[in-house]
What does this fold into?
Amino acid sequence: MLEENVLIQFLKKFDQYPFCVKMNQKEYKIGEGQPEFIVNFRKMIPLTDLMTSTSLALGEAYMDGNLEIEGDLYYALDHFLGQMDRFSTDESALKKLMFTSTGKKNQQKEVQSHYDIGNDFYKLWLDETMSYSCGYFLHEDDSLYQAQVNKVDYILKKLYLKEGMSLLDIGCGWGFLLIEAAKKYGIHGMGITLSQEQYREFQRRISEEHLEQFLTVELMDYRDIPKCGQTFDRIVSVGMVEHVGRDNYQLFLDCARAALKPGGLFLLHFISALKEHAGDPWIKKYIFPGGVVPSLREMISCAAEDGFHTMDVENLRLHYNRTLLCWERNYKEHIGEVREMFDKRFVRMWDLYLSACAATFHNGIIDLHQILFANGINNGLPLVRWY
It folds into this structure.
């Protein structure tokens, strides 16, 4: 009974939206008004766990089936995760989890732990382009596929590409952006990734599209870019800088600048935050080991050190909320196939990941920014936003 009361007292600080807690055949109401959602605790969570990491304690309880949401998971999280500033995180107790090595070998291992889960798995819930980043919904009725085509088209327009230009994609994923750039603009492109699965699929796509004269893909760490001795007219990086670690943001931008011709354009597309923080313990343990979300201001500050001129900044936060909801819907439609691939704990974990991320974007806990940099002065661009 005492443990039960302690848990309820802890939960009472999350009272922005009223909700109901069910525990040991009893019901407790948190907040004022009609409950927005119901949380069923099938097993107690020790207060020490919640104080060490509220995120980790609740996330693991959900993965293990010890915590159930009655009704729509996203709806509940959308009404709860806006209060993440009230979560407890003991960074000293979680030091090994929160602050992992940014060395090459460890970061390659961390990246592969997520992106090499299997192409067959990602194909179940991504769209046909295999784009694993924020879409761009130009119209209300845009499908996920159309939004991803829109996103790539938008990025390529921002890069002001001309036929024959060279384009480097740092963290190229499964290669859709470079394929579109080669087909629509006649550029020569190189993509780099640390994921074996992405590398193999991109190679297959290059061959399938007969683009061997235009595109190459390399298994390469961004730190090795300057060693290649190549320079490019344009550079793009979509959803990759979140993996390099706060200590390496300047190094990442240094490497990009070393490979970018004077006056060249660099588009950086990344999940961002208002202020610098170490990250979420549950996400770091189960989804993106070593992942850190940069603040907008530190990216722009680091870029200035390299002589990058900030040409444009755009926030696409709500586009990522909608993208994630599309992914979550696809995931649930194929959950039977996912269950054949993975155990129950993984199936619940991934559902929680997609729903929670959608909720955090909706609540402004994190943003999605596109920054367009110029390497030094470029007076050859149109005076107005050409895209």
